[in-house]
Write a structure and sequence with these properties.
3-stranded antiparallel sheet; 27% strand; 3 helices; alpha+beta
């Protein structure tokens, strides 16, 4: 059995989906990302998604940007999901 300190317990209780790591974990877990996208774009098929968290890319000015979640569907459409 794991014994968590009171500090660890309080940190967990204060965690919310607005924290970057919690948001990434939720979006990477099971069908959460699919459900989220389906609510926003109901006419699309999100049954097969590739999900990458913290994806770094270069923009048109060659500056590096970081995406919270990059999801790609079966048809190759890409979805940038930011907290």
């Amino acid at each position: 059995m794991v014994n968590y300190s009171e500090r660890d317990r309080q940190r967990w209780l204060q965690a919310s989906p607005t924290h970057n790591k919690i948001f990434q974990w939720i979006m990477e877990y099971g069908t959460m990302c699919q459900d989220f996208l389906k609510e926003i774009i109901p006419e699309r098929d999100f049954s097969h998604l590739e999900i990458i968290s913290e994806k770094s890319l270069k923009n048109v000015n060659h500056k590096e940007i970081r995406l919270d979640i990059l999801a790609t569907d079966k048809q190759g459409n890409k979805y940038n999901i930011e907290m």
